[in-house]
Amino acid sequence: MQPAESYDSILFSRQTPYEEESASAGGFGVASGTHHRSLLEAQVPDRANESPFRTGSLVLYKHDPARVQSIGRKKLTIVLPDGETVRVRPKDIDLLHPGPVESLEGLSALDGEMEMAWELLQGSATTLGELAELGYGAYTPGTAWATWAWVADGLHFEGTPEQIVVKGAKEVAQEKADRQARIAEQRAWEAFLTRAEAGEFVPKEDERYLTEVEMLALDQLDQSRVLNELGRAESPENAHALLLELGYWDETVVPYPERLGLPTASPDVSLPPLPEEERVDLTYLPAFAIDDEGSTDPDDAISLEEMDSGRRLWVHVADVAAVVLPDSPPDLEARGRGETLYLPDGKVSMLPPETAARLGMGRTDVSPALSLGLDLDGEGGVVGMEVVPSQVRVTRMTYEEADKRLEEAPLDALYQLARDFHVRRQDNGAVRIDLPEVRVRVIDGEVVIHPLPELRSRVLVREAMLMAGEATAGYAAGEGIPIPYATQIPPDTEKRPDDLAGMFELRRYMTRTQYSSLPGPHAGLGLDRYVQSTSPLRRYLDLVVHQQLRAHARGKDILTTDELMERIGAAEAVAGDVGYAERLAREHWTLVYLLRHPQWRGEGILVERWDRRGKVLLPDLALEPTVHLRGDVQLNDRLTVEVVDVALPTLRATFRTV
What is the pTM assigned to this prediction? Predict the structure, then answer.
């Protein structure tokens, strides 16, 4: 009877029984015998008193048979099946038979009754010699190696030559079932690899293998057995490419927020009701919330009030701090997120979605606000500021709608005020960088890309918010309120170009805005002090500003400088990732647009050049590809370019000049 078939596919070399050998084992130059126990006792002395190894002994070395060639004082020399000799310590080998064995070539598989021996001995323990005699009728070098193959196989027996444990029937049955399962799994794995190499995918069968690929594509693992077996580098980009090839992902899957560890769902925490408190009634003032079409979280609205003492610019801001208190569950949630994540196919809010629905400017008939009243002098400069909880009645409109009404009162006066403030900022050294911008949205599955023109209404809103930020910074400094001031050092160049290529170069000199508990200049904006304070629905540090202003106005305890710095650190830790994820998502959907429009052709403007290559800005897409140049092309020249290739996993699009 042959040893049981191995279900592991891969056996150690010692696991293969050798071919038939006569029971007398005469080919090994040793006498056969039937009294194996007395023979074993005579030939295998107690190791505690004397070494069991003899010249010619059959031993086990690293799963292979070996023959003892000579015995030294501390080491033995053994001969391996390939003829190589190795010096080993006694503890590195196990005795299979005392020998003598003249050669290992004669070892071969034998017919025996090993399953019968297992049935007789199951549940007990034995030795290699006893098992060989019971299974093969004799304990010889040949039967010893054949018997050891059964032990090494591990199905019926396990242990060492001196102590072999005979497994029970249930244990053997379970091991057989496990081996069959492993064989089936190996076959399924190989079938999957064959399909993957052919670019095919069977959902119910293959999803379990592709889960790890998906995790690597999301940068949640750094290795993939699948990619390794397919001979592909184990990177998120290659994982993404494979998932696209197989159809497990499609082009609408955007992996970047998850790669950066950002939440992909809005927070699920409750908000308390708006507190009962006195609010200044400003519903008599026309108030305008101007935003992009489709915006659902309008943070701010503006009004202009003519008074006997002069004019007052009101910037009404959603009163989020009235319900999101420091260290409350929604505050902690917002602190961990830093900002609302805006993606072309949706947004992940910093605060629970109900916040904007309840508090957004113009989302209800009368909106609760924290209104910043900026008193203006005759030239439009801010000479005083008041902070009041209020209620306002807001008219919402898009930038395009507002742009058509800028000749109407009071929008005309607001626009003139904004223009004057813009001029003052420029005179104070503000850095102007006007590069093409687009808005990328996914509407009903379609990618829609709209260039953003510099509408007058955008100037109006931008400058009004900057006026509020400058005034709030001055107010907080005067009142001793710790807030996160936004600062920026000047660029390391005196150039202030007005051409596209020059502004593209100037952008490289600009540093990121830094946040501090101390006021300081913001060089890019041309302001001596500034704080972002008008978007508490979208930015955490804006919310912190409002928490501080509100607490100060009501005589409550405000955050200390140390507490403020802790919040600044938390917000800055994630803000960069949020902005990076938004940029990558915009590029992703822009490339999806190009995949769906493979004949795209448009205008590019050369903004950088190196010999026969140059970087062009594509105003219609806000991409900045590098192209080969033809002819005598100068900076700021307009070129016609067309798309050649799109690689979505690496966010690379190749263009050429036409």
Answer: 0.82
